[in-house]
Amino acid sequence: GCVGAMTIAYSHGLDMCKLSGSVFPSAMKPALASAIVTLMLNLLLYLDIVPSLTELSKEGMVFEDSAAWTGFSSLVGFLVVFRTSQAYTRFWDGCTACHMMRAEWFDACSSLCAFCKHSKSGEEAVLTFQNTLVRLFSMLHALAL
């Protein structure tokens, strides 16, 4: 009947290779640019056009200065921890807001069902309305997730 016409047909092919609706084409742009730069640098190092790091690490260079590396790694570590903490906080704020919205929708649906108790319509019409109402609020919550 009607249920078969409403189901979603999924293809079981290689969905990663499709261009529309996939994240891979947009992620390939920076990844390909980075791969090309890496390839060019390796080629320049292989042909001895660019000096290697061992040739640049002479006395007094920044490559042997441990204070520079310590400061840099401390800064990167702080930034990673700070960004992770911010992301974690935002995630839980979103979860809390979603649960609060679910509670508000539950209250609204309960109130509407309670108002039906004093309806002048027939019992079957009231039950049909309440069932439809609960299903619509359930779909609203599922859509919000």
What does this protein structure show overall?
There is one protein chain. By secondary structure, this protein is mainly α. 72% of the residues lie in helices and 0% in strands. It is built from 5 helices and no strands. It has helices at 2-6, 24-46, 53-56, 66-115, 123-144. The longest helix is centred in the middle third of the chain and has 50 residues, at 66-115. The protein is elongated. The model has no long low-confidence stretch (mean pLDDT 83).
- Rg: 30 Å
Secondary structure class reads mainly alpha
- Mean pLDDT, rounded to whole units? 83
Q: Classify the beta-strand content into a percent band.
A: under 5%
| Order of helical and strand elements | HHHHH
The total count of helices amounts to 5
Which segments are poorly predicted (pLDDT under 50) over 5 or more consecutive residues? none
How many strand elements? 0
Question: Helical content, roughly?
Answer: over 70%
Major pleated sheet: none
The span between the termini is 29 Å
Q: Tell me, briefly, the overall form.
A: elongated
